[in-house]
Amino acid sequence: MGTIRFAAIADAPALLAIYTPYVEETSISFEYTAPSLTEFEGRIREIISEYPYIVYQEGDAILGYAYGHRAMERAAYGWNAELSVYVDRGYIGRGIGSRLYRCLMDLLQLQGVRNVYGVVTHPNPPSEALHRRLGFQLTARFPATGYKQGRWRDVLWFGKVLSAGPPQPLRPIGAVDGEAVLRRYNQ
Predict the structure, then answer these.
(1) Which of 3, 17, 45, 56 gets the highest tally of CB atoms within 10 A of its CB?
(2) Given this model, what pLDDT does residue 165 score?
């Protein structure tokens, strides 16, 4: 069994190698071309300043990663996060994505995030099943909202409530004991 740890900028080449086939060979990502390594490093740097970005590693190999980021811009949306998870396509079906997603949600809840959202290109049966299995509800369907691989694609939004009650100030990931959460997932 592998371990989950926080991502570092130095992980960017391995993470980009996982992400690039999703961009170039599928409609799962709506990007048309994979970002450069420098751009990808910048994305990681921006996310880790406020939100969790985690990797799943077996030995020296990173086999998947997940991260959360702000879902919407206006102040009243500040307690929502959008989630992303990518697993090396040779390792899909081993539970890596589920484990990463569960850990990510625990980290976000510790920060004070109330609602999480998974944005899924339809059809994507594995991702749709993952969200349903983890207690997400289909909250919106945007028909023919993205054009990739020669056809229009629907986008589904899955949502899950992590906590209730009045909001507390959202804490950056560096201000919470995220390592305690990781330890639970690595026992």
Answers:
(1) 56
(2) 87
The pair phi, psi for residue 37, each rounded to 5°, is -60, -40
Sheet-wide strand order for 80-87 = 3-6, 53-58, 61-70, 80-87, 115-122, 151-161, 137-148
Among all chains, which residue has been given the structure tokens 């926080």? 6
The 10s digit of each residue's pLDDT in 174-185 is: 999 999 999 999
List all residues 6 or more positions away from 144 whose beta carbon is below 8 Å from its beta carbon: 152, 153, 154
Place of tokens 């490093």: 41
Mean pLDDT of the chain: 97
pLDDT of 75 higher than 90: yes
Dihedral Cα 76, 77, 78, 84, nearest 10 deg: 180
Residues 134-156 as b or e (16 or more Cβ within 10 Å = b): bebeeeeeeeeeeebeeeebebb
Residue among 59, 53, 54 at smallest CA distance from 2? 59
H helices of 26-95, where? 37-48
3-state secondary structure of 77: helix
